[in-house]
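Throughout our pipeline, every protein is held as a single compact record rather than as scattered files. The record that follows is passed on verbatim for readers who wish to inspect the format:
___
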Amino acid sequence: AVSELWQRMRGLPHAYMAPTLVSVSHARSLFLPEGVGSGPSEAFQRGREFAHLHPHHDGSLHITLPEAMKDEVEAAGWGERHPNPQQNVILIYGPRDRAELEIVWSLVQRCYEYAMGRLA
């Protein structure tokens, strides 16, 4: 499920992979180029990085979402806020099966829409 999630993430229009600015060195990170996307600064983790997937053995990821959506994710049990409130991210638990993959993918898409400026 994690491999398929990464393949989907890599297919997001305009997104590109680069070394993470905020996570462990083996994390796979996605960025938007300068001038693409008009999301608020809170939609990015550092620079133009908006999401990163932790190493294969874990499969969890950090994404950015509007505050109300973070509340919904936590209430539904799909993730938890970063313990440091200055890190404007939410940890999403790695998908274990196809059903969970679809839910996690929908959250990644919301993160992408947030970075693109299409989500308040």
In short: The chain is about 30% helix and 20% strand. The mean pLDDT is 93. The CA atoms of residues 81 and 90 lie 4 Å apart.
